[in-house]
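agent: user wants the full assembly modeled, not chains individually. Plan: 1) parse entity lines 2) check alphabet per entity 3) run joint structure prediction 4) return tokens. Steps 1-2 passed, two entities, 434 residues total. Proceeding.
--- entities ---
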Amino acid sequence: MSTNLGEDLKDSLEKFAKDCNSNERLMVMNKDWNRVIHVCASDIKCDYTLVSKDGSISLTPGKPSSADMVVQSSAEILTSVFYGEVSPNEPYNEGTLRVQGSEQDVLRLDFITAMLWEE
Amino acid sequence: MSENTIDPKNVISISLGSSSGDFSRTIILNGLTVNLKREGTNGDLEHAKEKVRLVDGCVDAIGLGGIDICLRVRGEKFFIGEGLKLAEQAHVSPVVDGSGLKDTLERSVTRNLVEAGLIYPGIKVLMVNALDRFGMAEALIEAGCICQFGDLIFNLGIDYPLTTLNELHELATKYRKRLLTTPFHMLYPTGSSQDETIANPNFAKYYLENDVIAGDRHLISKHLPNRIDGKGILTNTTRESVVKTFRDAGATWLATTTPEMEGVSGGTNLMEAALTAVVGCRLEDLSVNEVTHLIENLGWTGSIHPFTERRGIEH
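--- prediction returned ---
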């Protein structure tokens, strides 16, 4: 079960990075947003690192040595968020998604998901 | 012998902005005396709710400042969660947020600036936020201005100017759900942060590469560079000190959209509340033509402060 959840989370993060990197306008918007984001699925103790640099997003397994933002929730919720099935706002407001970081960075991550998936 | 007197109308603007901008004035509108009052709550939403409950039923209309109930974009309303909750505190007095005047008065004032030759085809305009005053944005585009809309820059901190009305509508549509849930202070300066000036070169370049700076006065002031020589300013909610700041920074002219009252240009919410009290209904219950006619009859055409002698219009 944990393995499947971990794989699903990895797939969702890979898709998120791919969608960001194939959106030229978003890449321009993020050109100066250089951040390290720690994605932590606390229920299955699984960590990933998203790096936003010069407009591109890359994904590596494991936790970073230091992060600008930490996005923490269950693997299932994180997977839904990074697949764009739910807006991060919903679990965030319900208290099931925790985000540590500056308000500007929280807004930016939320903005990226809005640009990618909202219609 | 009894005197035929009509009780004055009383309206109040309850603002999430700084209380340092509080004022009261009495004006005559359509032959009626209207007592206007602005009270800032320094960004304290709960305090603002309490004040709305307190004055509900005691005043003829309530304006909400420093926050909107909704954004009006191409005839669609995009509601703002915290603004809605604030408005819902009143059950008797009508509550308005100024969006009705932004959609009518600001549109017509912008057209007046075209007639005055201050705005013309090809002139470059930075509108610091356009979703909040889409009527002005449409009027600027209609006048042939080359616009940079700074909603992403000034509200979200993303260094990317939007340049078309379609992009603005797209942003509003994609943010529809988020506007209902995102804490408003994350999107717009409230309380004492309205009084802070942050000289950020990322923002300054947009002031410098445009000829006219338009939109929300707090956002314009917050990131105002030291010098804006030769620029025109189109905004409202000004005080004498603000006018002086723009003049000292080298601006050529300042146009305010709302009428000036002894050195103060009120927020659109306050002036819409005044109109609501006088007319006896919300502006949204009137047609755009009716509101425009009303504004024209009142002589609300905007005010222009020329800071330097104009050498003629070059375009």
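agent: reporting back. The CA atoms of residues 38 and 49 of chain A lie 5 Å apart. Chain A has a mean pLDDT of 93.
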